[in-house]
Design a protein that fits this description.
The protein is an alpha+beta fold and 460 residues long. The protein is 56% helix and 16% strand. Keywords: ATP-binding, Cell inner membrane, Cell membrane, Kinase, Membrane, Nucleotide-binding, Phosphoprotein, Transferase, Transmembrane, Transmembrane helix, Two-component regulatory system.
Length: 460
Amino acid sequence: MGRKGFRLFPRGGWPALKVEKSVRRMLPRSLLGRSLLIVLFPLLITQGIALELYYGNFLKVVSRRLTGSVTAEIVLSLNALERLKNPADKEWFVAQAREQLQLIEIWRPGEKLSRVGSTHVLGPMDDDLVHALREAIDYPFFIKWRHFHHAVRIYIQLPDGVLEIDTPRKRLDMGQIWLFVAWTVGSTFLLFIIAGLFMRNQVRAIRQLAQAAEQFGMGRDIGPIRPAGAQEVRKAAVAFNRMQDRITRFVAQRTGVLAGVSHDLRTPLTRLRLSLAMMPREGSICAKAMTEDIDEMIGDIAEMEHMIDSYLSFARGEGSESVQQVEMLPFLEDVVAAARRASVHIRALVVEPGLRAHMRPDAMRRALGNLFDNARRHDASVVLSARRVGGGVSILVDDDGPGIPPDRRAQVLRAFESGQDGGTGLGLTIARDIIRAHGGDMALEQAPEGGLRVRLYLPN
């Protein structure tokens, strides 16, 4: 195999990618959540290091000193009790140990220990005391920590009985560790909450900017937003307000210019139509031929006016119409009635009850009118339906015409691409631009009856 060899997984291959995806799934997706994790992890690491330094060094040193002192006094008591033979002397020593050493000793002759070792508590003092007693005495012993609140009971098995020793818990227990742990945890959560409040304000400003950009992209006039948050976020908000103002002024100027162009183009066409209408059609040898020519010229003028309207509609977009919340059933009923008056065969209208959508009504009428006009030119009947999908509204326009092949659907959505002679190629393009200006989208599919299905989606 040479120097290359065989590698089961390539470097940086799918195992590492799988681990990375698992970590990403566990991490929060929002900016606020990730920012809080960036704050929380260093806090936890810092407090953990501080706790380990205190717990692992200072607390252990103090605990060993305390347990060593108590162990030395217990060894002293054992040596004295073994040396003193007189019961009165033993009682005197036990009384002195209680007063001077704070050790309460009880001698139980003839008893045996049932267990040895120690019950465990939080902290190093239990292990330190066990270790110190094992090094200092040769007798079995048992330490009970949890049975008494203010004392620790030590049982020592002597040859002729058991010696019970109660020592104050404060001489062995470092009560400050609870205060330190509480301070560590409390300060961590306090700093985390403060950081969360500050980060939430920053994220709120970013979220407000993103929402304003989304609303403006869907053509909804929300006015300028108030700059808030950090300096960079404020600069972004100010830049967005300026951009919004420039785009609004540009659209208004372009609409005004196009309105003037529309007037200038229609004026000579109107004069031509009037001149043709006033031409004499009778009393001439060629009256019949002239009448046919005049009718054809009038038809050409009407077609030119229709083409000019299509071009201007494509260039003008939606104008200054505002977005409204529209109830879909009466709106689509009006659209269908207007289409039937224009000789469009609408077979059925199906609308989900209570359906509402945010739209520009006149622009949507123009978009649906273009779709109906395409079906009429192909002598196709239309089924119109609307229903709620996710967070928006889906409108389906199905016809039983020849349809559009899948390889040409993207082409016919481009401007000036027409599927038949004499068309402007702007009907579908204008409809798609209107839908996208609402923040939605338009797709061409195959209808259940084999014709064309136009799927419109409007977000709420």
